[in-house]
Amino acid sequence: MIEQKSINKSLTAAIRQSDGSMLTPFEQAKRYSSELPYSKRPRWIVTSNFQSFYIYDMEKPGGDPEIIHLEDLEKEYYRLQFLVDEGNTNLQREMEVSIAAGEIVGLLYDALAKQYVDPTTERAMKSLNILCVRIVFCLYAEDAGIFGQHGMFHDYLEEFDARKMRKAMIELFQILDTKPEDRDPYLKDDNPQLAAFPYVNGGLFANEDIEIPPFTEEIRNLLLEKASADFDWSEISPTIFGAVFESTLNPETRRSGGMHYTSIENIHKVIDPLFLDDLKNELKEIQRITVQKTKDKKLRDFQTKLSNLRWLDPASGSGNFLTETYISIRRLENEVVKALQRGQITFGFNESSPIHVSIDQFYGIEINDFAVTVAKTALWIAESQMMKETEDIVHMNLDFLPLTTNAFIVEGNSLQSDWEGVVPKNQVSYIMGNPPFVGYPCRAKNRKTIFYPFMLMKKVNHIRQPGKLIMLLVGILKQHSLCRERLFGQHLYQLIPLRRENRWQVSGNRYMTVLVFILILLIVLLYGTAKQALRLTCTV
């Protein structure tokens, strides 16, 4: 709470109030605070007269205020850091870093594309996309400490001139995909720098058939200096990892694939009311338990519950929804681990790892093969970052490599493929995502005959829980019937971003949409007081 006075007004002298009482600016603000509900009362009260700031911490009643004078603000602004939402600050920083990373990837992409004999062929384009993803993973791995030594990728490539760099890159990719026991036993003698790289696994470096063009001095300098030495990839947000690569795809490719980046804020507008809010509330209830033995059992049961949930995004793109969901669930798990630790240093676990939640729990379908690779890589990066947070809690090192987990994201058209081939319907917990945003005129001819799903979303104000989002799956008609009984068990939602809150969002066949829209309006009127999202049975 901030009580602002005019310039030259004393911040310590009492001022007559409208009721005749004499109060200092701080006492005046404290009276305002006392009228608020306890949950809304501020921890900090700041009084100011445009020349000085008096900062009172209400956790220290009777304590003297910290004082910052205007002329010292440039040096002491950090003392006002509590006024800033650090979460939003970090998010903004991640966004800025990711945009800068996207520009670097775009430069690399363009420079490498010029070196292909024919960059327009399908093999060349696919190879270039895979090459860019591999390079970015290596750049991230050396900055995040995954490779073991900071700058390891840079130092290895620096030994080669541009003419020999292509061969060096091919040999590195082969080593990253080879188990230590299967490597040349004399490699440590021949090339100790190359031998020091760990085995990655996960399939990212498995395809040796990709076409890698010759490198130039421009590419060498760009990779070693701008992309490696001058940039810290460990700060990128894996959730917006896909946005980093938008600059590598030309507009035609991006539009024809329906590629679209959804912000972290909009992702949470979907996943919070869908499941995250309930899980957070459940954990808070457990943390209120006073009997430690009972509390520990509930915490372990809750962690097991988290590890048994499954998510499907049938239009996953570059994995924004899946990645942000994974990060959110892992942070909940880290709270559980922290509560079970109770501040103690752990020297070992009775089980193999304190981490139970895995990217194996995340499934996706995506028509663009490049986006599939990006999504899997983004989840690996998220796994690495979350493991670091867990290490800070348990005070021990956890092994990230070789990769032992893999998100089940497959290439395909979700409207033509059998979803049960991706994940059985009795195992999935939530379906979510952001379907392609391209309109009917922009769709490829071979896709205009497909009946696209039509979806509705509305922020329903008359629900007893204000702001509760009701997501309705109206229907999905596709070549292969998803099911003829209840759809995907307990939770079924198909979602689109909240670009226009409080308005219906509809896409699909325009004539059928009108009929379904009328039908849904009738359903909403009949079931307007429903507390849960409607689950509709669909038949074809």
Task: Walk me through this protein's architecture.
With about 550 residues, the chain is an alpha/beta fold. The chain has 17 helices and twelve strands. The strands form four sheets. A four-stranded mixed beta sheet has the order 1-4-5-6, with helices on one face. Strands 9-8-7-10 form a four-stranded parallel beta sheet, covered by helices on one side. A two-stranded antiparallel ribbon has the order 2-3. A hairpin with a 5-residue loop joins β2 and β3.
Order of helices and strands: EEEHEEEHHHHHHHHHHHHEHEHEEHEEH
Strand content: 5-15%
What is the makeup of the main sheet? 4 strands, mixed
Q: Strands of the biggest beta sheet: in what spatial order?
A: 1-4-5-6
Mean residue pLDDT? 76
Gyration radius, in Å: 28 Å
Oligomer: single chain
Which structural category fits the helices and strands?
alpha/beta
Quantity of strands, as a count:
12
* Helical stretch tally: 17
Poorly predicted ranges: 250-259, 438-511, 529-540
Q: What would you call the shape?
A: globular
